[in-house]
Specification:
alpha+beta; Immunoglobulin-like; 5-stranded mixed β-sheet; 5-stranded antiparallel β-sheet; 3 helices; 19% helix
Length: 284
């Protein structure tokens, strides 16, 4: 019996070590992302936890962050020269590593870095058992990223165009549309210029398709939001609210358009706002 238990123990240990070896090989095989910077603009990096330490490998790059009061934000600038690397350690010990390069003209100025972008932790744990991916933790990380990016968009106050419609003092506006990773972010404003409070029943998002032929018709396909940030249930009279809908990234052909359908609870101040495919396909 002891011999059998010993054999089982050896097999489990060997399997665990094999898994650890595969994990280590996969980790070292990861290709580092490249971040471009120059000497005329600040490139902002937002991390999931406060920055404790940030180091660049060359003097022609400068990474600044608040060393006294830990914050999530770090700023990167670069002077002409050879590429280097940036190493950042968060308060919780998560390690992030990037290739950094100088580029005279850069289009991306903001990076919102999820916890999944970490290459490891400065306090390695002993791999003595088979570890499985916690799907709930992955969902929490994604929600955390949505929260941070939505808050950033609301503070940014950037506009994409004049996309609005009103009905009896209620004004529904799409302020901005932004693509990020695999999602589309819709920054929405509802203004109540009436003398009565507005109780929101629902705000639905759908895609409308024009059917060609002699009998022209419209078909709608409703799309569920991945996340809703600061969605109100009531808009007080003479007040305005702003919030964000996070949708799966998509594009539209010329015969399609997006529809925002706003319905009042126990009322008739309803609005249908049509969004052209041009705004969807060419966002900010």
């Amino acid at each position: 019996m002891r011999a059998i238990n010993l054999i089982i123990t050896v097999l489990i240990l060997g399997f665990s070590l094999r898994i650890c070896s595969l994990q280590a090989t996969a980790q070292t095989a990861n290709i580092l992302d490249t971040i471009y910077a120059n000497d005329t603009k600040n490139v902002a990096l937002f991390f999931p936890e406060p920055i404790r330490q940030g180091i660049t490998g060359s003097d022609n790059f400068a990474f600044t962050y608040n060393r006294e009061n830990e914050q999530y934000l770090g700023l990167l600038q670069a002077k002409p020269g050879k590429e280097s690397n940036l190493l950042v350690i968060n308060k919780n010990g998560a390690v992030f590593s990037y290739i950094i390069r100088y580029k005279e003209r850069i289009s991306k100025l903001n990076y919102f870095i999820p916890l999944s972008g970490s290459i490891g932790n400065e306090r390695p744990t002993l791999c003595d058992s088979v570890q499985t991916v916690n799907s709930e933790e992955s969902i929490d990380n994604r929600t955390y990223y949505y929260q941070k990016f939505c808050s950033y968009l609301l503070n940014r106050k950037q506009r994409i165009g004049r996309i609005k419609k009103r009905n009896e003092g209620i004004i529904l506006t799409v302020e901005n549309i932004v693509f990020d990773k695999d999602e589309s972010y819709f920054v929405i404003e509802i203004k109540n210029n009436s003398t009565l409070d507005y109780d929101l029943n629902f705000l639905n998002f759908s895609i409308e398709t024009r059917q060609k032929g002699k009998r022209k018709s419209l078909q709608r396909l409703y799309k569920e939001a991945l996340y809703k940030h600061s969605l109100p249930s009531k808009i007080i009279k003479n007040q305005m609210v702003r919030f964000v809908y996070v949708m799966p990234k998509f594009s539209l052909s010329n015969d399609r358009r997006a529809i925002l359908e706003l319905k009042e609870k126990d009322g008739e101040r309803n609005i249908e706002l049509k969004i052209s495919h041009r705004y969807i396909n060419y966002p900010n």
